[in-house]
Specification:
This protein is mostly beta strands and about 190 residues long. It has helices at about 15-25, 80-95; strands spanning about 5, 15, 40-50, 55-65, 70-75, 100-105, 125-130, 140-150, 155-160, 165, 170, 180, 190.
Length: about 190
């Protein structure tokens, strides 16, 4: 029912967004996102993995706010995503026959971090060096200096290079700049700019 007719009001057509969303997106008419009163249990789940000695190790945990209900290591090379998927049915098994307030998944940093300030100190007008991907021995690892034209919270745009550059590939150029000039095959001259 997107629009309903209400003859008693000044506006004969009315629309209830919540009712429409409930009808369109509810998977079942009696399912609602509301906590139960007086639950027996409230569970949280988590799965994680790490690499140790070249082998991926993983585990999962089912916990309440005060205790660890169940936690186990999983076979080698199990991903963090698979560990989280294993944790959820284990929590359901633990909660079988009990009234639950909510079975909640807790995943550290599951939502993107919103930035309200830049994570780097660079400003337009600064001069920086940019790290190259050149891995040959005895070759320069840094190009520059380049002047910064624009910045975002995590990247910079410099003069003379088309793509944006992530702030982790940049270092500030020293304020004292030197200019090298050659005055013959075996003589160079250094001047402070």
């Amino acid at each position: 029912m997107f629009l309903t007719v209400n003859e008693e009001s000044e506006d004969p057509l009315s629309h209830d967004c919540l009712q429409t969303i409930e009808q369109v997106y509810s998977s079942h008419s009696d399912l609602h996102d509301e906590p139960l009163t007086n639950p027996d249990l409230e569970l949280f789940t988590d799965g994680s993995s790490f690499v140790q000695d070249g082998k991926r190790r993983a585990g999962y945990a089912v916990v309440t706010t005060t205790e660890v209900v169940e936690a186990e290591a999983l076979p080698i090379d199990t991903s963090a995503q698979k560990a989280e998927l294993i944790a959820l049915p284990q929590a359901l098994r633990v909660a079988k026959g009990k009234t639950l307030a909510g079975l909640k998944r807790y995943v550290t940093l599951s939502e993107p971090l919103t930035l309200d300030t830049p994570v780097h100190p660079y400003q337009p007008g600064d001069h920086v060096y940019i790290k190259t991907w050149n891995s040959e021995p005895l070759q320069e690892k840094w190009k520059g200096p380049f002047q910064i034209l624009l910045t975002t919270y995590t990247a910079i745009k410099v003069e003379g290079i088309e793509p944006w550059i992530h702030y982790t590939r940049v270092k500030k150029a020293p304020l004292d700049q030197w200019q090298v000039t050659t005055e013959g095959p075996l003589k160079i001259k250094l001047n402070r700019v």
